[in-house]
Amino acid sequence: MKLNTRICRIHTVEGGRVRRRGLLVASLAMVMLLAACGSNGPGSAPGTEPTTGTTSTQTPPSPGGDAGGAATGLDAYRGMWQAYQEAIAIPDPDYPELARYAQGDALRVLISGVTSVRDQGLVGVGEAVLNPRVVAELFALTPPQVKIDDCIDTSHTHLVKRDGSPYEDRPGGRRSVEATAVQLDDGTWKVAEFVLHEVGTC
Q1: What is the DSSP code (8-state) at residue 63?
Q2: Cα dist. 2→67, 80, 179 in Å?
Q3: H or E stretch including 119?
Q4: What SS3 class is residue 31?
Q5: What torsion do the CA atoms of 46, 100, 152, 167 make, to the nearest 10 degrees?
Q6: Which domain holds residue 146?
Q7: Are the beta carbons of 2 and 25 closer than 8 angstroms?
Q8: Which of 52, 58, 99, 123 makes the best surface tag, with the fewest CB within 10 Å?
């Protein structure tokens, strides 16, 4: 599915605080990627534009800890996009799996994106491909966290009208993503924030 930049908010961290800089207006057919608009600091997530579709995480999330969450930061990242993909295909902003893999700003952005898609009578279709990698491990911090970079390909995702009426979505493509995942007290991980850049940034 495509990432809908319309639904994605870009955030930047200034003085230790996450600030919204605006809304991107591009849609990713991937449900995961719809939620993929995030921020540069822990706790940011996708924006408020509609997005839909499905995404391919390449590798399914590993089993989590006792709480049933993600076992690693990459598991949380992949799980977040998978949950977003499933939520936007319905679309349902209350989809419980969203909160299993995301929290804070990231969760708010995802929920906002799915809500926007639903309110506009849209759904996400198609499949996006994730290629995440950990670029920094900050285990000395409280809470421990990892920084993740990704290049998401949303070429085969898009938004469509639920009633079948005509709707022209923007084309997808390869987009850079920066995310932060944090480890919870129970040992599981969640994505706290992420930034989804425009098509052609990777």
Answers
A1: P
A2: 31, 15, 18
A3: helix 104-119
A4: helix
A5: -60
A6: 2-199
A7: no
A8: 58
Which pair of structure tokens corresponds to residue 46? 């996708």
Q: Three-state secondary structure along 127-187?
A: EEECCCEEEEEECCCCCCEEEEEEEEECCCEEEEECCCCCCCCCCCCEEEEEEEEEECCCC
Q: Tokens 């995310």 correspond to what residue? A: 179
Distance CA 171, CA 126 (A): 12
Domain count, the chain: 1
What does the DSSP 8-state code read for residue 61? P
Which residue's structure tokens are 């084309």? Answer: 171
Residue pair 156/85 in contact (Cβ under 8 Å)? The answer is no
* Nearest Cα to Cα of residue 150 among 186, 194, 193: 194
Indicate the angle between helix axes 104-119 and 73-88, nearest 10 degrees: 20
Q: What is the full per-residue pLDDT of the chain (202 aa) written as tens digits?
A: 545 443 343 232 222 223 232 222 223 333 334 333 333 333 333 333 333 333 444 444 444 444 568 999 999 999 999 999 999 999 999 999 999 999 999 999 999 999 999 999 999 998 789 999 999 999 999 999 999 999 999 998 889 999 989 888 888 999 999 999 999 999 999 999 999 999 999 9
pTM of the model: 0.73
Both tokens of 67, joined, read 């709480």
